[in-house]
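Margin note: ligand = zinc ion.
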Amino acid sequence: MNDTNTPSAAKYDLPKAYEFEEVEQRWYEYWLEHKTFSAQMEPGRPAFSIVIPPPNVTGVLHIGHALNNTLQDLLTRYHRMKGDNTLWVPGTDHAGIATQNVVERQLAAEKTTRHELGRDKFIERVWQWRTDKGGAIIQQLKRMGASCDWDRERFTMDEGLSKAVREVFVRLFNEGLIYKGDYIVNWCPRCLTALADDEVEHDPTHGKLYHLRYPYADGSGSVVIATTRPETMLGDTAVAVHPDDERYAGLDKIGIRLPIVDRIIPVVFDHHVQRDFGTGALKVTPSHDRDDYEIGIRHNLERVKVMDERGIMNENAGKYAGLDRFACRTQIVKDLDEQGLLVKIDDYEHAVGKCYRCATVIEPTTSKQWFVSVRPLADKAVAAVREGRIKLYPDTWYNTFYAWMDNIRDWCISRQIWWGHRIPAWNCLECGHLIVASEDPGFCPRCGKIHLAQEHDVLDTWFSSALWPFSTLGWPENTKELQTFYPTSVLITSFDILFFWVARMMMMGLYFMDEVPFRDVYLHALVRDKHGKKMSKSTGNVIDPLDMIKQYGTDAFRFTLTAFAAQGREIRMDEERIDGYRRFINKLWNAARFAQMHIKESEPGIVTVADSPADLALPHRWILSRTNATIRDVRKALDGYDFNLIASAIYQFTWHEFCDWYVEWIKADLFSDDADKREQARGVLLCVLEHILKMLHPICPFVTEEIWSQLPGTRGTIMLEPFPEERPFWENAEAEQSMQLLMEVITAIRTIRSEADVHPSAKVQAVLICPDAAKRELLRSFSSSICAMTRAESLDIAESGAVPDDAAHALVSGIEVVVPLKELIDVEAELDKLARERKVLEQDLQRVRGKLGNENFLSNAPPDVVAKEQAKLAELESRLAKNEESRGRLGKER
Ligand SMILES: [Zn+2]
Ligand SMILES: [Zn+2]
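Resulting structure:
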């Protein structure tokens, strides 16, 4: 009857230890071979889809990817088990500059350059690199257990996606939403490309602030301006002051004589000038500063560019032409000093923009670039979020999102590199006509000539990834995939790309599909080390996912990531916790081995006993009620993206209810001669274990699959089993209450034993004094279980009575639990020990309280020292309370 399809079809005893490496490999191969990840598109079923945030093709799996993809896989597996038409689209991003740089480094090692190679040959090299080396990360995602539909893997430069890119470009251009214009951009003089704002890193730098004197044009006075980049003064075309600044009233009629250049420039009044910064006068260089560029537009100022694309001073720099910008700075400061126009130089700490690829100082500069005019697109995205058509998790992101979208600027989409989607625009070399088309044009539609030159620039990498949710589903064709899976259900991504990726997908999706690209956006936290520090190679605190997988197994690693994924902005990852969850998996493994020994061969009836809970003994009714509650909690957490709660609900239930109590409790029944008892225990044990495995499968796919395949009966893959649904007829408050009482009594006896250092093998005689008749009845019917679980040789249950001397006692739920200790331990010695401990504790407490009551200490000690003392205080107080409890239990005050 066994299903011969599964890789462990021949049932064997589960090995003693869980050998994750072998199991993981075997099951992943099985899933791939049987195409269990393939999307189904059956009519009438709900759809669930996710598009992967495409990792860079140059990427290597880091802990952020590991977290991100674990959460995606978890949801995908959950919905697949629920029977939804489920699709997780995988793929990679061509990563323009990053990939180009990798190949350029290769060329450099071969002592050549892309320019020597030429554009076409270079692009060939990049494709070759992609074939050989690209996509290593895809293999690593498979190690993580990702259940992507790999037959649908996409690449942002593949044929279909390239077609979508052109289509979008042409339509936006024709509708006036793409334009070419002069604009101030972040320019890297080394990479020779414009950079997006988010590609510029701002490093705090020790710099200089130069105070320069600009004379009035009529010689009647002067104004002092401050700048960190004096060389840009050659391109100044105005001085700006605040209109209400009385120091400069009337100066607009006089003007300024720009030193060295000897050009008269106007003084303009602008409300954006800060009156209290320096002298309140600002030099304005519209061609080389972003704010100045805006002032220039407001006042219609001339633009003078004084550097070329490599950061070398150009002909507008007069005698400085040919000098590097930094050499020019030195020279100009010297010259101004000689002319008496250098007032002073201050040390100045400020943020300098640097290229994120090569760390070269950015030169803001004007150039001809392509732009998307985003306002109309952004408005649609904001409306969709305001109307709740897209929800953000955690909801703390809404305000940030709105604020950013309100201030959004036009999006510069052209990049001066070779690797990427080349802009589909051609200039007619005969008549100058600009042609934008989705197919390469053969001739100019205006003059009919064939001499056309395509734009050299390529599109920003984010342009193609902005289309990802619909381009990967086949757009612009109206495919069945698009009809079934768009809008996608949820996007799971890191919050640091909310704006340059998530927001742009919203804009493009709403514009081209007239529908949101995803219903929910879950922004996960950044993973840091256990002290909250950013992981970095130089700090040496990087946790490498592949190492963790090798050491602890994929499931333990995935469980840890899930357990840590609370909705916040920071996750502190601690390797010890991974080891802790490895032990959890071993605990489950051992419970499963135990179960397997007892339920090897299927017996008629055992599968269905859980269907009639009323006929079952209390522990079974209890565990079924708890199973039902856990299913409810887990599903609720899954549907609300409370990932850490999914993990904790399953963990608590499996370890502290199923393994610690239930399995212990039913041991006697499993070995019983009473066939009915045996059948109940086997049936419910199997049933609950199956539910645990199914609930745990989305987080820990491998171990659950392996155990599942070894349980009796016909078994296919667990990943296609229905996800557990609530079974309200299992809910049983009375059973939970009764078991709670029994567990409290047992725990009380165990605590007394351990605190009084009773030898583990020693038998005790326990007395329960319980005035409540119903509780007495309950205790009586489970007295043999209580004895078995506490190593008690007798249990007296009385309505009333006094606690004898030399007995420890505790009160739980109105029951006095009494354990005579005479002959078991030396009560006097025990009490002496406790009294000595109390004395030490009290002395320590006095010392710490004294410290914390000392104003001097509190105001002078570093905060972490104070915190340490406070923690010590709490620890001592709790130990003292425990000591008092123990002394109380031994029945005497001393
Ligand atoms: Zn650069
Ligand atoms: Zn033409």
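The longest strand covers residues 200-215.
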